[in-house]
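Late entry, thiamine diphosphate complex.
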Amino acid sequence: MKQSGAEIVIEALERQGVRIITGIPGGSNLPIYNALYKSRIRHILARHEQGAGFIAQGMARSTGRAAVCLATSGPGVTNLITAIADAKLDSVPLVAITGQVPTSMIGTDAFQEVDTFGMTMNITKHNYLVKDAGELPYIIADAFRIAETGRPGPVLIDVPKDVQLQEIELKSRPDIMASCVRKQMDGRRIEDILRAINNAKRPLIYAGGGIISAGAEAVFSGLAKKNSIPVVLTLMGLGAISPDDPLYLGMLGMHGAPCTNYILDETDLLLALGVRFDDRAVGKVNEFCPQASIVHIDIDASEIDKIKRSNVSLTADVKEALESIVPLIEENRREEWMRRIDKIRKEHPLPPTQSDDPLNPLNLIRNIALIAGRDAIITTDVGQHQMWVAQAYPFHQPRTLLTSGGLGTMGFGLPAAIGAALAHPERQVICISGDGSIQMNIQEMATLADLDLKVAVIIMNNQHLGLVRQQQELFFNGNYIASKFDSKLDFAAIGRQFGIRGINLEKAIDPGKSIELMLKGRGPCIIDAPIHYSEKVFPMVPPGAANREMIIEAGR
Ligand SMILES: Cc1ncc(C[n+]2csc(CCOP(=O)(O)OP(=O)(O)O)c2C)c(N)n1
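Prediction complete; structure with ligand written out below:
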């Protein structure tokens, strides 16, 4: 039986077990949409391709499985690019399938032609320009394997329209995930790591998103417990260990828990697990952990020694590596180090919340956490609200915080929340956003209204680009330019116009109760929470400074 390239694309996605895809049709990908018409795969019509990319990311980040988005050539692709770059920096498995002008017209500046392959080469883990429909089943199977295995990441498949329309008879189809070969771990390195841990007096674990990608949370907290090693997490690592674990010290870095940045100065062995020494985490690199030997375990060989030279390194799946290490590691109570840690913790707590105002940002976030429960999935946008969430929201499980860590993309939160809710319709999903960020993909409120998902969007509305204003106040002599919005938007009313329940907490007598009632209601809701514009995120390490030079609070 002859099939078109477009039908082969959809059949290959079905064979991968894909149930939902999201995107926007256009001239160059209409044959794929036509094939989708007859498929049991559900399609979610986004309102902007960046929204589609982040909806797919929300599915992928909350499940760990590759999710699929579609875009047409030209502007469809350029709109999608931010979401692809975002997936690359945060190691999110994504398969983007884009339409392209017919092969004979490539390079002619045809209508809606851009060089998708060239433009996405540096922001994907791998990309393809398909020349023949017969390649499609193999390319799609490979794309999923590449996106999901090793260090996850985005893969793009650009399919010219004539290839979508090409009719062929497929002789064979590839096995799904057949070629996933495990790398052998270097046993001598494991011995070196064991020796380093056993000899250390003041070890510290610095762990990140790699722990969550590998599903290594249990063995990782087992290591910390057995050998009494305190833990600091990156933004991407939040949820990898319970915030109630006595060994957990908090997030490190630019807006981290102050004690972490002092303890990093004292450690003699840093165990860097599934991390990439990002500048927001380590601050001034040559002043990061000045007394420590470094053991670095990461699945991506290119991360080893990229930013900070390690004394022992292991390129491996961090879960497999820890499963080899933990049974062999000595039990150790490290009483002296624990006493020292306790002292530093007590001397340098997070800046206390000055008020009992329920609309104080940290109070608001703690309250949301109490109402939402441990199973809720939280997405954020980028700005002060994102850092307040990272500081104050207790993430007890992996994949409950979805945030744009590497690219720091405003506009991520709402579509990512839609994706998370599509993948987990039974769970409460909450997008905590800022009034600046929400406006970057506000059109996806229409998608949310279509889908009627259990998503609450809480907008911390300070009528400013708050984090920009904060930097202008602290580092640019209060020269406030381009950080204030002159029009005061009523997001609850905007939500209602999209067909979503909305409430403004400005006049709420008990904001906590109002939030609870909104979350209990059916379907999505928008909550506009007024925040004073002068609120700041502390501590803050000035850009380029060492972590210990953090500003703890205004004037200090
Ligand atoms: C797409 C994009 N453009 C610009 C920035 C730079 N930026 C970082 S934070 C921020 C302000 C965010 O404002 P808002 O969403 O209102 O959050 P707030 O800081 O007030 O909580 C800006 C403009 C960015 N991160 N992403």
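The longest helix spans residues 49-63. Will revisit in the morning.
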